[in-house]
UniProtKB/TrEMBL annotation:
Residues 19-67 form the Galactokinase N-terminal domain. One of its GO terms (cellular component) is cytosol. Residues 117-195 form the GHMP kinase N-terminal domain. Keywords: ATP-binding, Carbohydrate metabolism, Galactose metabolism, Kinase, Magnesium, Metal-binding, Nucleotide-binding, Transferase. Residues 294-370 form the GHMP kinase C-terminal domain. GO terms for molecular function: ATP binding; galactokinase activity; metal ion binding. Belongs to the GHMP kinase family. GalK subfamily. It comes from Nocardioides marinisabuli. One of its GO terms (biological process) is galactose metabolic process. Gene3D superfamilies: 3.30.230.10, GHMP kinase, C-terminal domain. This is Galactokinase. InterPro entries: Galactokinase (IPR000705), GalKase_N (IPR019539), GHMP_kinase_C_dom (IPR013750), GHMP_kinase_C_sf (IPR036554), GHMP_kinase_N_dom (IPR006204), GHMP_knse_ATP-bd_CS (IPR006203), Mevalonate/galactokinase (IPR006206), Ribosomal_Su5_D2-typ_SF (IPR020568). Its EC number is 2.7.1.6. The lineage of its organism: Bacteria, Bacillati, Actinomycetota, Actinomycetes, Propionibacteriales.
Length: 399
């Protein structure tokens, strides 16, 4: 069985600092950390002004940053063979490609005043080294973790207070992803990476941008969150995600509403076009499921949680059409082996499933999924435990 460890934060920090010094010749100013996430309910609802309920993972991306006296930007990653070098101006859309675009894009976005009311920062040249324990392409938001780790570290390296700048970092990270990387994503991942609180999920309402922590009571009810990475890689820059987003916008237009948040499941059924009707049905019922999931956690109602998770998975599989055989097998097997409930999570087309599992059944459920994958001829999956962690943090070197 493969378990993905979040790593020991002190060890990771010490190694990053050491390797920064050997890569760039002196110590970094700041180490930033931002987590990946697993979403418990509310998929593709963020860009429909809906509700989401993600949890920050203990797995995170780390960024070591040192300010330079010129405008040169050097970016390296422990996970990538080749680095990127350019200038602050060269970080703008159309410049960096591939993984470096996530980091460089944030430097550009921080300098733009990424949203209304967000002050543009004067971003200098930087040396930057990245490390991560968030699996890439697993639907666990490695991209937002990278963007937010870099942005948080740069904000702190400028001598600014991170807490005051959290909303600005969220906005900058979203702009980096949509405008520099070119992935038309919705904002859930960056929001949870910056605003999550340890021990809780984050309920975010994208109609007004408000959020609040939701205590899941996992320890008290003896439940754990088991995440299974199917190793079927997903990429948000591929067409499927953008097509779903376009379908939702078209469905809203035909219903005469600004976003599907303003529609109801009954209104979704009025759509003549079968595909758009099913897309709108998923979004409108999924938003309702987020509300009911929050209530079910508060009531410690395992039967309701099981029904909601499964209904969400079926909706994503049949109406939104973003699942795949590996995700369906992981969900089905988790429930057969004793999970309270399970669903695919994240953007879809591969990636991970999340199961709510009684603590004493975790090993058995993971083993059952592994056996099922062997039987079905799928690549071996990897598992991790999603202990709800905190949002991004920074530490000045020397503190
Ligand atoms: C990806 C996107 F980045 C998010 O904005 C969200 O839409 C999610 O897919 C689906 O819920 O993670």
């Amino acid at each position: 069985m493969t378990w993905l460890s979040p790593g020991d934060p002190d060890d990771l920090r010490a190694r990053l600092r050491r390797e920064f010094e050997s890569a760039f010749g002196s110590a970094p100013d700041v180490l930033g950390r931002a987590p990946g996430r697993v979403n418990l309910m509310g998929e593709h609802t963020d860009y429909n002004a809906g509700l989401v309920l993600p949890v920050a993972l203990p797995h995170a991306t780390w960024a070591a940053v040192r300010r330079r006296d010129d405008d040169v930007v050097r970016i390296r990653s422990r996970q990538q063979e080749h680095g990127w070098e350019g200038t602050v101006a060269g970080c703008a859309p159309g410049g960096p490609q591939g993984w470096a675009a996530y980091a460089a894009g944030v430097l550009w976005a921080l300098g733009t005043g990424a949203a209304e009311g967000v002050e543009p920062l004067s971003v200098p040249g930087v040396d930057l080294l990245l490390d991560s324990t968030v699996p890439v392409g697993a639907g666990l938001s490695s991209s937002a973790a990278l963007e937010c780790a870099v942005a948080a570290a740069v904000v702190a390296a400028l001598g600014l207070d991170l807490d005051t700048h959290r909303p600005g970092v969220v906005a900058a990270a979203i702009r980096a992803e949509t405008e520099v990387v070119g992935a038309p994503t919705g904002g859930m991942d960056q929001t949870v990476a910056m605003l999550a609180e340890a021990g809780a999920a984050l309920l975010v309402d994208f109609a007004d941008g408000s959020s609040r922590p939701v205590d899941l009571g996992l320890a008290a009810s003896g439940l754990r969150l088991l995440v299974t990475d199917t190793r079927v890689s997903h990429a948000l820059v591929d067409g499927g995600y953008g097509e779903r987003r376009a379908d939702c916008e078209e469905a809203a237009r035909r219903l005469g509403v600004a976003s599907l948040r303003e529609a109801t499941p009954a209104r979704a059924e009025e759509l003549d076009d079968d595909r758009l009707r099913r897309r709108a049905r998923h979004i409108t019922t999924e938003i309702e499921r987020v509300r009911r999931t929050v209530e079910a956690f508060a009531d410690d109602d395992h039967a309701a949680l099981g029904r909601l998770l499964l209904a969400s998975h079926v909706s994503m599989r049949d109406d939104f059409e973003i699942s795949c055989p590996e995700l369906d097998a992981a969900v089905e097997t988790a429930v057969e082996a004793g999970a309270v409930g399970a669903r695919m999570t994240g953007g879809g087309f591969g990636g991970s499933a999340v199961a709510l599992v009684p603590a004493e059944r975790v090993e058995a459920v993971a083993r059952a999924i592994d056996l099922r994958f062997v039987r079905d001829g799928f690549a071996a999956p990897a598992h991790l435990l999603a202990e709800p962690g905190p949002g991004a943090s920074v530490r000045r070197v020397g503190d």
